[in-house]
Amino acid sequence: MEGINMHADESSVTKNGRKSSNLVTPVDENLLPVETHDGISNGKREPAVLGSDEEDKSPDISPDANFKEVERNVFEILDDQGSSSEELLLGGEDTYTVEEAIDKCGFGIFQIKISCIVGVLFMADAFEIIILSILADQLHCDWSLPLPKKALITTFVFVGYLIGASFFGSASDKFGRKSIVLVSSSWIFVFGVLSSFAPTLLWMYIARFCVGVGLGGAAQSWPMYAEFLPSKSRGRTLSLMQVFWVTGVLGVVSMSAVVVPRYGWRVLVFVAALPQLVFLMLMYYVPESPMFQVVSGQRKKAERTLRAVARLNRKTLPQGRLTVKFITVLSVRIFNPSAKIEKHTDCTDYCQKLDTTGYLQLLATSSSEFVGIFFVLATIDLMGRKISLMIFYFGTAVFLFLLNLCVSQHIITVFIFMIRGLSSSLFSVIYIYTTEVELLILFLRLTLFEIPAMARSSHLEVESYDPEVEKWESYEERLTMFFEANNVTEDKKKVAIFLSSMGAKGYGLLKNLVSPDKPSAKNFPEICKTLKDYYSPRPPVLLERFRFYSHTQSASESVTNFLAELKRLSSTCNFGAFLKDALRDWFVCGLYDATVQKKLLSEDDSLTLEKALKIAVSMETAAKSSAIIKEGTPSISRIYPTHIRSVGLGTCSSMARFGPILTPFFAQVLLAYSPRFTVSFYSILALIAGVCVTFLPYETKGVKLKTTATMESAH
Question: Maximum CA pair distance of the chain?
């Protein structure tokens, strides 16, 4: 029943739930199956049943909400994590999380489709980043820019990136991944086009700064995409997505070699912005992240999204109710072999545009990012994220230091090739680690669970009744235990708490059912019986037994959950004294695993339900343990809490922008005066970063995952 929130100190009628933010772009309805309800209708139509509205009425945490609303909504989220003391007290039901649903759907047609669409954005972003090196050289000559002003073109982009990554990271967790990615991509397109018409250097600075802000927001496509990937293949898939980035790098370099000599840099900048427009049109076919939807209270929308994923992948969702559980870029100008590194004193600081040889050399070194993808694939799951980061950082430091050697141009090109490849690998692993690592879970458990738990127990609150996911009998049992746990014994007080917490529709329904009497004139048992007769009219025993014998264990269902579901179905079958025999017989016959079934069938007539369950659980546990030993690593994943994932990624992206902000000055200015100091400086930075990796809290996947999961479970 919608709107049933047990607050003893609230006498006003409250409606549980609000409309979702308009900034959340709706899912393409062509991708979504028509929602149907399993089971056979009892012939009664519920004209005003609460919780059956088409509109999503789930609660969402608004910044304008008062303390009680925030406390209540946060606790509802934490309840779904399975760690709530009240949930343990009041009992539970079969549930599944978004991660479990995505894992069951696997990697299929849906993931391939969204990979291609997000890949277009990766290529478009690569266009806007790599074009900086070419654009800076062109403006350096065409507008007679001194080196510091030339360097500022790149610096302004990454200053904007720093601001955009931080701002859009927070906004993404509030308004949705898809909405922010759409806004960011539109922003990049508009100011990318304006850059091509820049009449002055100030105009160019402002336009490229705004492009950088948009690029910071476009980085939110990474968590949006990652949240649709099954945990088992997430690392490899995210690594392979760099193919789109490298394709964009090679594409813009090749296009520059053709367009710039014939049409100039303005046409190049204009054309480089067009892929953003293509991506915006393709985003119509990408739904909002179901993780964001379920955390923000849009559970029904999340279920529709997951059904769309399952339908395209030809899979089924888990049974039960959906819940929620709680680069630094070096300028390629440094390594431009067509320009000599020497000191000049004229006002333009030795202007030289890229020639054909320069474009070919740039294309060759850019292709090294393909090699970086193979570096990641070879190490990320075998050695883990931390070891991979250390290898790539130390390797980058070594090859940067080797640039100080007096060797031939071909050897220098090899060093540059390795530096670009290792840097690309670093970029991939850092983003994967940031998306997966769970750094703040202990803090969240302390601040968001313990305090609201104490507050909630004093406010006499229980979750709302939803007839779509729970039978009235189950809700009534939990409600009775809730009253007992909080020492509510007086019948009038029970009625008062219940009636004062009902929504307007719920109270209106009850009022119609007991008319001409008033609901307040009824005692609590009478109210419960009235609602039970309405929500759960007794069905024919023959039909209930048909449902019982039709239920079999699914591939993803544990034997314990299978038996629990059989017990639930048997409650209305009127088996009487034969209940245990019926449960035992169909428990054995309905098992999914043929090996377990054969073992139970080989037992003699003394086999009881308890013994059958014990044998089945033992064999199921042994099979899972054997699979873990064969795989070498458990197929579980520690995920950054969904409601702070984009903030974490945005913060990481913002901090990483300090490198690109400072790099142009080192690359364009300091390099001309002291190349040895410049490459040595970056070599030392890479070495320090590699050492810092050892202080990361723990591995997210790989050889240390089992230990990590055990430690987290202990907490």
Answer: 102
CB 712 within 8 A of CB 441: yes
Beta bridge partners of 97: 323
How many residues are given for the chain? Answer: 715
Most confident of 437-441, 487-491, 495-499: 487-491
CATH of the domain at 601: 1.10.1200
**Percent of the chain scored above 90 by pLDDT?**
10
Most confidently modeled range among 212-221, 268-277, 309-318: 268-277
What is the rounded CA–CA span in Å between residue 251 and residue 46? 59
Is there a domain that residue 574 lies in? Answer: yes
| Segment 593-602, tens digit of pLDDT | 888 888 888 8
679 neighbors 180 (Cβ within 8 angstroms) = no
Domain that holds residue 613: 541-631
Q: What is the DSSP string of 501-561?
A: TS-HHHHHHHHHHHTTS-GGGS-HHHHHHHHHHHH-PPPPHHHHHHHHHH----TT--HHH
Strands 95-97 and 321-323: parallel
**Per-residue pLDDT tens digits for 349-394:** 445 555 556 556 666 666 666 666 777 777 777 777 778 878 888 8
At residue 321, φ and ψ (nearest 5 deg) are: -105, 140
What is the Cα–Cα distance from 601 to 489, expressed in whole angstroms? 49
Q: Is the peptide bond before 516 cis (omega within 30 degrees of 0)?
A: yes
| pLDDT tens sequence across 326-341 | 432 333 333 333 333 3
Alpha-carbon distances, residue 362 vs 56, 230, 270, 416 (angstroms): 52, 36, 21, 10
Query: Strand (E) positions, 353-480?
Result: none
The answer to whether the Cα torsion of 110, 383, 650, 68 is positive or negative is: positive
Question: Residue 708 domain-assigned?
Answer: no
Per-residue pLDDT band for 41 (boundaries 50, 70, 90) equals very low
Q: What percent of the chain has pLDDT over 70?
A: 63
Q: Which of 249, 253, 214, 248 is nearest to 134 (CA)?
A: 253
Structure tokens at 424: 């690309």
CA distances from 196 to 201, 355, 511 (A): 12, 21, 68
pLDDT of residue 82: 42
The number of distinct structural domains making up the chain is 1
Cβ atoms of 152 and 664 closer than 8 Å: yes
Residue pair 380/432 in contact (Cβ under 8 Å)? The answer is: yes
580, part of any domain: yes
Q: Is residue 3's pLDDT more than 50?
A: no
pTM for the whole thing? Answer: 0.48
491, 498 contact by CB (below 8 A): no
The end-to-end CA distance of the chain, in Å, is 35
Rounded-to-integer distance, Cα 506 and Cα 527, Å:
12
**Residue 388 falls within a domain, yes or no?**
no
Distance CA 454, CA 616 (A): 39
Per-residue model confidence as pLDDT tens digits over 639-676? 444 444 555 555 565 566 566 666 666 665 666 667 77
Q: Sign of torsion, CA 199 205 206 212?
A: positive
Cβ(208)–Cβ(168) below 8 Å: no
